[in-house]
Amino acid sequence: MSARTEPLSVRVCCANLIGAIADDNALQSAAVFESDLLPTVTKICQDFNWDVRKEICGQLPFIGKHVGATKAFKTL
To answer: Where in the chain are the domains?
Structure first.
């Protein structure tokens, strides 16, 4: 999911989906997020294309709201 070899549109969509999942509280616990999705979020934040980074930046408030401020600042 969202590997750098994927097309740009897939990487942008992945960033948007992660924000939507976090915003809808579809993640049952912060532990699930940390173990399953945090590595993907980190990869997306470090993407070489600015469109992908721009999209994930727009989704970070939703992700941070679900995870909590303390863990969001510690892990990202």
So the answer is: 8-75
Q: Cβ(67)–Cβ(30) under 8 Å?
A: yes
- Per this entry, what is the length of the chain? 76
Show the tokens assigned to 27: 């993640």
**Which DSSP symbol is given to 76?**
-
Count CB neighbours of 73 within 10 A. Answer: 10
CA dihedral 3, 22, 59, 73 (to 10 degrees): -90
- The answer to whether residues 52 and 44 touch, using CB atoms and an 8 Å cutoff, is yes
Which two three-digit tokens encode residue 33?
A: 């997020």
Whole-model pTM over 0.85? no
pLDDT recorded at residue 47: 92
pLDDT tens digits along 30-68: 677 677 777 888 889 899 999 999 999 998 888 887 776
